[in-house]
Write a structure and sequence with these properties.
With 451 residues, the chain is of the alpha/beta class. Helix content is 42%, strand content 16%. The chain starts with a strand and ends with a strand. The chain binds one RNA strand of 74 nucleotides through helix 1, helix 2, strand 9, helix 6 and strand 12.
RNA sequence: GGCGACGUGGCGGAGUGGCUACGCAGCGGCCUGCAAAGCCGUCUACGCCGGUUCGAUUCCGGCCGUCGCCUCCA
């Protein structure tokens, strides 16, 4: 594969990416907190990093993608209490919904999907290491990370420790040495129905430590790429970075890659604000192909608006690709089109610019469509496969039901006898049934309508 | 208040110190009995004000606007 360059948030610049270990790439992405069905915004990192993995694999690399699931969290306790259910049960149910909803994206599963609740031992060990190194302290059953003990704290998110909000009024403030310190372990409180044993007493892990522990357990500290939404940059990723730096004396990841936010109207979409479009509903309305193409339409670091029109446009794009697929034949593509294919992959190699890559792909489609003789599909399959849309070219089962076929045959007879009024009437009937008749040469074909 | 991102044609959205992005929609044309699909053409932009430059949408400064994070957000 050609040289790949990626934007690294830590460096605030595009840098050449080279795997830590030749031929292998380890990626860790912060996944959802499972207190409800995930929304379309949560789907963006899932799509972005699943596709990035495919691109690496296209380049012959062996990729390990880890996406965690946070199943122990304040929000889960709150949601479970509101629903009168156990938090364990709620988290388990929402985890299965998360898997089912993201499965529908058709981009495969991450290689590992660790649960915080199943990683307590590693988390406790990590906390113990931070206490031993003097970077954390116990306070009435809680354990806090001593932020000012990390000289580089703030380097990732570019914040000055002394200019940070002092976090007044935050829970546990009275027990902290410094308001900036954050919880590694929280002692069990009333209303919380799950807790684990630890040297500091029964309780549960804080949010940030699980990622340091699980990422290290599966990929080893100093792995290649840490990903997630830009909203996690601070404090979550800053804290993860600090924990690993202090406990292990090494940086957690070599590249920090953040996807931009999905915004609804003018406000960022988040579950906290309640302006939610659940992923499964969006998939129901527009289909998985359109959703994937929609995400590819903009560069991954740009904020994108969530609205019907962009999704509808993506759906038209899907139709155009299917249409192109009907014209193509099996086999290699014309050499003259190769530069467009190469531009597609070169765009992906330059900070994974899917939008620029799609422009090259559309040009390829137009060039193929304008040719008199049928064009081999190999190039387009190669391009679409990387973005998870090669299915659009597969010979779909488009055989019309007998009833529709009869109407079409009758229409053809009417046309042959010059009875165009009758022919148009039959065409309208066929359209009403969801099919389109297309006259071509001396014959005709039947094309399924919109999904 | 602190830190940061962004303002591109009707819409979405790349990119670049001088050369058509691309897609959708519209309009005109080819094709068609008429359509559909496809193709061709067309409409054609870089928030505002300065500066640097032979030349800026692209670099620098200011302003206006939008948005994100500031310890529960992917």
């Amino acid at each position: 594969m050609a040289e790949l360059r990626l934007y690294d948030t830590f460096a605030r610049d595009v840098r050449r990416f080279e795997p830590r270990e030749t031929g292998r790439v380890g990626i860790y992405v912060c996944g959802p907190t499972v207190y409800g069905r995930i929304h379309i915004g949560n789907a963006r990192p899932f799509v972005v990093f699943s596709l990035l993995k495919r691109f690496f694999e296209y380049g012959g690399l062996d990729v390990t993608l880890v996406v965690n699931v946070t199943d122990v969290n304040d929000k889960i306790y709150t949601a479970a209490a509101a629903a009168g259910r156990s938090s364990i049960e709620l988290a388990a149910e929402m985890t299965s919904f998360y898997v089912a909803d993201t499965d529908r994206l058709g981009l495969g599963r991450p290689d590992h999907e660790p649960l915080a609740s199943q990683s307590i031992e590693a988390i406790v060990d990590y906390i113990a290491a931070l206490i031993a190194s003097g970077n954390a302290y116990e306070a009435s059953g809680d354990v806090y990370f001593r932020v000012r003990s990390d000289a580089r704290y703030g380097a990732l998110s570019r914040r000055e420790v002394d200019q940070m909000d002092q976090g007044e009024g935050v829970e546990g403030a009275a027990r902290k040495e410094d308001p900036l310190d954050f919880a590694l372990w929280k002692t069990a409180k009333t209303g919380e129905d799950s807790s684990w044993e630890a040297p500091w007493g029964g309780g549960r892990p804080g949010w940030h430590i699980e990622c340091s522990a699980m990422a290290e357990a599966l990929l080893g500290a100093g792995f290649d790429i840490h990903g997630g939404g830009l909203d996690l940059l601070f404090p979550h990723h800053e804290n993860e970075a600090a924990q690993t730096r202090c406990a292990r004396g090494t940086e957690l990841a070599r590249f920090w890659v953040h996807n931009g936010m999905l915004e609804l109207a003018t406000e960022k979409m988040s579950k906290s604000l309640g302006n939610i479009a659940p992923l499964h509903e969006v998939l129901d309305r527009f289909g998985r192909d359109a959703v994937v193409l929609y995400f590819c339409g903009a560069h991954y670091r740009q904020p994108i608006d969530f609205a019907d029109e962009p999704l509808a446009q993506a759906r038209r794009g899907v139709a155009r690709l299917r249409e192109a697929g009907r014209r193509l034949i099996d086999g290699p593509s014309p050499a003259e089109l190769a530069p467009l294919r190469e531009r597609f992959f070169a765009s992906l190699a330059e900070d994974f610019n899917t939008a620029a890559a799609l422009a090259a792909m559309w040009e390829w489609v137009r060039e193929a469509n304008r040719r008199e003789t049928a064009v081999g599909r190999a190039d387009l399959v190669e391009m679409l496969d990387v973005i998870g849309l090669a299915n659009l070219l597969e010979a779909s089962d488009e055989t019309a039901p007998a009833e529709i076929a009869e109407l079409a045959a009758a229409r053809q007879l009417a046309r042959g006898s010059g009875d165009f009024a009758r022919a148009d009437e039959l065409r309208a009937q066929i359209a009403a049934a969801g099919w389109t008749v297309r006259d071509a040469g001396g014959g005709y074909s039947l094309i399924p309508g919109d999904d």
